[in-house]
């Protein structure tokens, strides 16, 4: 997961990080495993998130960030191209680019068709 924001917010967000806080954080729901991984990453870096919204949908979180409504930790496959073209900015802390590792596993039922996007993700994840 890569922590990202709208480019217009990058200086403000990184200034907050230097003070040990992450304002306007759009977070995964508290009961989720992803929330725990993200929170652990932030705590290990001495950063206290100030959550403005909880969501179960990375797509919703991405749209909010693209509109400049906050900061989120989103799957790299969703945001790498947007960072490369300047629509989003990757957030850096003193330790470098802020990322959270989230182990993933999946099952595919024999004979079950999956979307092309998921096929691409699975193919790139197993390299």
Percent in strands: 15-25%
Quaternary organization: single chain
Give the radius of gyration. Answer: 15 Å
Mean of residue pLDDT values: 87
Q: List the uncertain runs.
A: none
Could you tell me the number of beta strands? 7
Strand line-up across the major sheet: 3-2-4-1-5
Q: What share of the residues lie within helices? A: 25-40%
- Structural class call reads alpha/beta
N- to C-terminal distance: 18 Å
**Number of helical regions:** 5
Please describe the biggest sheet, giving its number of strands, its sense, and whether it closes into a barrel: 5 strands, mixed
The 3D shape can be described as globular
What string, H for helix and E for strand, traces the elements in order?
EHEHEHEHEEEH
Offer a concise description of the structure:
The protein is α/β, with parallel strands linked by helices. It has five helices and seven strands.
Describe how the helices and strands are arranged.
Blueprint: E1 2-5, H1 10-18, E2 21-28, H2 33-44, E3 48-55, H3 58-66, E4 71-74, H4 76-84, E5 89-90, E6 92-93, E7 96-97, H5 116-125
Parallel strand pairs: 2-3, 2-4
Antiparallel strand pairs: 1-4, 1-5, 6-7
Salient structural properties:
single chain, 127 residues, alpha/beta, five-stranded mixed β-sheet, two-stranded antiparallel sheet, 5 helices, 7 strands, globular
